[in-house]
Every structure is written in structure tokens, then in C-alpha cells.
């Protein structure tokens, strides 16, 4: 065999192998170009949409854009719906614009030092009782109210459960304290927010100033006054501990402008792609992403006022749009339910509403692949919250590998990110539901540089090459899971496995 023949045969072999790979990839799915991904991202994160705050014209424009893309790709309207829009009704509690809170002679300014979380009475005065952390737990036999008479009085408590710096646990405990105070007969609750991170307090005040929407279907009347006071240096807490030790009274008075309540609407955007398999097409995979963000604010120099939300979550919305296009063009075996959620930033309200009012019965939905982002600091990875909790982990690994990435689990469990996105609305009913996010190795300064910050923009410094890989990983994972022979499930022992068994009729 001469040299020329060897080279020729080798070349043919390489070409044949390359053709087989190309054919396999092409047969699997087309992929979106960097330019296509960039175009969606830059529109959704543009100044024109003004940060996509729920209930604003910019939020409405984003919903129309998503619906128009569904229409262009011949995505079907979901069963029982008249259009792609699922109207979500809200009651918005507008913030008081003026008010003061005086505690033991210290006058606190509205927004800078205190936030009225619940307002039953705009004028409040009386003596307060200091009740430590305000925890009552029968299991541990703990009762911070023991020996205290709080009936009809104002109760003051510290943030958290103890001196722990775990903010996540502190917020979890915060949700219980108004209920405990109410059961004890208190007239009002004041919680001293002691973490010194100004970023966290800034987010709390930002939410307050923008108005607090609630699902109209869940609105309950405020049964008591509840205020949060910023006490980063714990000076006020120390003073109140000393007052309580001396059994001295703690005078409190609050005066607020009467808050206003408005009815507003926003839309979830819903579409369906019918599967090709006669049997598996009766099952659906749910692909979801929230399209809202936090609106406008003010920078230190007053120049930039728009929270564009490129990473959070125009990235995820783009991934959903790309999946809609390419799965509609070449449908998988299972049917696909597409859900763009509103009001995620307000407390997962859009997904909660959809979960209570589904277009497709939950028992027919076998999997939810949600995509949401705080940002990224490692462009070799995709991060999955709930990575090792479902049976399709290997398929997500494969999807990432196809796009030159590696799939990894949550590197920051202390942030409780699994329970902070729309996937949890579906996990609670039993549907296996992880969230695919951009790659990061820690919730560090690089993430905080963009997360809910004015700099979260889709400018030329944005890594569009990596972004396209992330988008196409979501697309590939969606198709692999939709074509999988076996129904996805939670792994044995997962906290959502009992709900899974109930939903799908397993013992």
C-alpha cells in the first residue's frame, strides 16, 4: 500500500466519521446561533422595557414579545385557554410615603431605618414588651414569651433564632413571628433586623418602595401591625435588652400615611408543543422561566436608573424562546408545556398562580426544567439546583457535554436557591423540578456585582459565546428528557418523593 493510498483512506475515514457525528447532531436538534441568542437577550434586557417590573408597561411588552415568538414558531395555545396569556390578578399595597417610628426615645426614619411590613392601623402607640427572638417551639420546649404579658401590647423581637449569622434561617423564622405574636394576643410586632449587610437591607427597602403585590386570590386582611427596623450595629437591641432587664417600660409610637391598595394584572405566557409518540405524547415536560425583573431605581450618580435584568432572567427567558422554536420545528416524543412566569421577583407569584390554575393537569406533567439566573463566574459550567435529586441527572450531563460544558450541582446551598425560583411551585405538588442556571462556583463578589444590580446589562462586555452554550444546553436537556424512555422521578428519600407518589398514584 503506497503512501498516497494510506493518506486517502485515512482522509475518507475521518470525513466519514465527521459526517456521522454531524448527522447525529443534526438529527438530534438544531442549535441556536450566538447572534440569535444575543438578539433576544438584548431586546428583553433593553432600556425600552424599563426593568420588566410586574404590572408595568415594560413587563407587558415582554409578555407580548414572548407570545409573538410563540406565534411565529407555531406553538399551540394551551388547552382551555383563549390565547397565550394567562391573566394573573394582583392586589398591590402601595407604600406609605411618610411616617415615623419612635422606640424608647429613638426616632427612626421611614425606609432608611424601618419598613412597615403590615399595616392594620396607621397610628399606633403604647408600651412595648421585649421578647428576645420571639420564638415558640414545642419540640425544643422553647418559649421566648414565657412569663411575659403581651396581650394588647407591642412586642419587640430580634431577627433570627439566636446569635447565628445564617440569614436564610433568620428569614425562615421571620415568617413565623407575626403568627406567634398574634396567637399571644399582641397588638403589633417590631422585629430588629440585625444583619449588617447593607445589600440585604437594600433589597428589603427596594421591594417595599416598589409596592408589594399579592395574588388577589390569596389576599388576607392585615390582622396586626408588623414593622422591620434596621439595627445593623445592634445598638437598639442592646438598649432594649438593658431596659427589659431593669423591667422598665419601652414606649413606642408610629404614625404613617395611610397606604393605598390597587388592583393590577400581569400575564403568565403559556404554550404547548404536541409530542410525536402516540403514548408518550400524553405526558408533558414543563419548561419554565420567569421574565419579570425589579424595575427601576437610582444609582449613586443618578445616571442609571434601570435594572435591566440581563442575567436575571432575560437569559432564562431567551433559553425558553429558543427551546420553543427548535422543539416546535422538530417535536420530541413527549409533549412540551412552555411557561413564562411573571412576578417571580415578588415571591414566585406567577408560578404559584399557574400551579393553582394549570392548563394541563399536574398528573400529566412528568418533569419541570426551570431556568433562572443570578449570574455566572465560571464559563465552563452550567449549575443545576437539584442536580442529583432526580433520575435524569445523566441526561443533563450529556446535554452540557454536547455544548462543551460540565454540569455541576449547587455550590452555595446556604443561599437556598432551589427554593427561591419557580421550580419549587411544581416540586411542592410532586413534579420533579430542578433549575438549570449559568455556571458559578460560589455566591461571591462577581455574582453580587450583577445580582439585582443596575449593572446587569446585555452590553458588549457580556459573554455571548458562553451564553449561547448555556441556551443550547437547556435546549438539549429539554429534548433528551422529552425523548427519554422512562418517566423522570425524584430519587428515593427526597423530601418531595411523597408528593410525587401521591400525584402519580404510586404507593
Characterization of the model:
Helices cover 33% and strands 22% of the residues. With 507 residues, the protein is of the alpha/beta class. The chain folds into two domains: 29-91 and 264-503, Zn peptidases (Aminopeptidase, 3-Layer(aba) Sandwich), CATH 3.40.630; 99-259, Glucose Oxidase, domain 1. The strands form three sheets. Strands 10-1-13-15-14-16-19-17-18 form a nine-stranded mixed beta sheet, with helices on both faces.
The percentage helix is: 25-40%
Query: How many domains make up the 3D coordinates?
Result: 2
Secondary structural class: alpha/beta
Task: Give the overall form.
Answer: globular
Distance between the termini: 67 Å
Q: What oligomeric assembly is this protein in?
A: single chain
Q: Biggest sheet, in brief?
A: 9 strands, mixed
How much of the sequence lies in strands comes to 15-25%
Could you tell me the number of beta strands? 19
Highest CATH level, the class of the largest domain: Alpha Beta
What radius of gyration results from the CA coordinates? 26 Å
Amino acid at each position: 500500500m503506497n503512501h498516497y493510498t494510506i493518506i486517502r483512506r485515512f482522509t475518507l475515514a475521518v470525513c466519514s466519521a465527521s459526517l456521522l457525528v454531524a448527522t447525529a447532531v443534526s438529527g438530534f436538534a438544531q442549535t441556536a446561533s450566538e447572534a440569535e441568542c444575543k438578539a433576544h437577550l438584548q431586546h428583553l434586557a433593553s432600556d425600552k422595557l424599563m426593568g420588566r417590573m410586574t404590572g408595568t408597561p415594560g413587563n407587558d411588552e415582554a409578555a407580548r414579545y414572548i407570545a409573538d415568538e410563540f406565534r411565529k414558531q407555531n406553538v399551540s395555545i394551551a388547552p382551555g385557554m383563549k390565547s397565550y396569556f394567562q391573566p394573573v390578578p394582583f392586589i398591590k399595597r402601595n407604600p406609605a410615603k411618610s411616617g415615623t417610628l419612635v422606640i424608647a426615645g429613638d426616632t427612626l426614619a421611614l425606609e432608611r431605618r424601618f419598613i412597615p411590613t403590615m399595616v392594620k392601623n396607621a397610628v399606633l402607640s403604647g408600651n412595648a414588651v421585649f421578647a428576645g427572638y420571639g420564638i415558640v417551639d414545642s419540640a425544643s420546649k422553647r418559649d421566648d414569651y414565657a412569663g411575659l404579658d403581651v396581650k394588647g401590647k407591642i412586642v419587640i423581637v430580634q431577627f433570627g433564632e439566636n446569635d447565628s449569622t445564617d440569614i436564610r434561617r433568620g428569614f425562615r423564622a421571620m415568617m413565623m413571628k407575626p403568627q406567634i405574636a398574634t396567637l399571644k394576643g399582641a397588638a403589633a410586632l417590631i422585629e430588629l433586623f440585625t444583619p449588617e449587610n447593607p445589600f440585604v437591607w437594600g433589597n428589603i427597602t427596594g421591594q417595599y418602595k416598589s409596592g408589594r403585590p399579592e395574588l388577589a386570590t390569596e389576599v388576607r386582611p392585615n390582622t396586626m401591625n408588623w414593622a422591620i427596623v434596621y439595627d445593623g450595629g445592634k445598638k437598639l437591641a442592646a438598649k432594649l435588652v438593658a431596659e427589659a432587664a431593669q423591667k422598665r417600660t419601652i414606649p413606642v409610637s408610629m404614625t404613617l400615611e395611610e397606604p393605598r391598595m390597587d388592583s393590577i394584572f400581569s400575564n403568565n405566557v403559556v404554550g404547548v408543543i404536541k409530542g410525536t409518540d402516540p403514548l408518550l405524547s400524553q405526558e408533558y415536560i414543563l419548561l419554565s422561566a420567569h421574565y419579570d425583573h425589579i424595575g427601576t431605581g437610582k444609582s449613586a450618580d443618578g445616571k442609571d436608573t434601570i435594572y435591566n435584568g440581563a442575567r436575571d432572567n432575560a437569559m432564562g427567558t431567551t433559553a425558553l424562546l429558543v427551546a420553543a422554536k427548535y422543539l416546535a420545528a422538530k417535536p420530541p416524543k413527549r409533549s412540551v408545556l412552555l411557561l413564562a412566569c411573571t412576578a417571580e421577583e415578588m415571591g414566585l407569584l406567577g408560578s404559584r398562580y399557574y400551579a393553582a390554575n394549570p392548563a394541563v393537569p399536574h398528573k400529566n406533567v412528568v418533569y419541570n426544567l426551570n431556568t433562572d439566573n443570578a449570574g455566572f463566574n465560571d464559563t465552563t459550567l452550567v449549575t443545576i439546583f437539584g442536580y442529583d435529586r432526580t433520575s435524569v441527572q445523566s441526561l443533563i450531563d450529556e446535554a452540557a457535554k454536547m455544548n462543551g460544558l460540565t454540569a455541576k450541582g449547587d455550590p452555595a446551598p446556604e443561599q437556598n436557591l432551589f427554593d427561591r425560583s419557580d421550580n419549587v411551585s411544581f416540586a411542592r405538588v410532586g413534579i420533579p423540578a430542578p433549575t438549570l442556571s449559568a455556571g458559578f462556583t460560589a455566591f461571591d463578589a462577581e455574582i453580587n456585582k450583577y445580582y439585582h444590580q443596575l449593572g446587569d446589562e446585555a452590553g458588549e462586555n457580556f459573554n455571548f459565546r458562553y451564553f449561547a452554550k448555556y441556551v443550547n444546553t437547556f435546549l438539549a436537556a429539554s429534548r433528551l428528557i422529552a425523548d427519554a424512555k422512562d418517566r423522570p422521578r425524584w430519587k428515593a428519600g427526597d423530601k418531595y418523593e411523597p408528593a410525587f407518589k401521591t400525584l402519580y398514584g404510586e404507593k
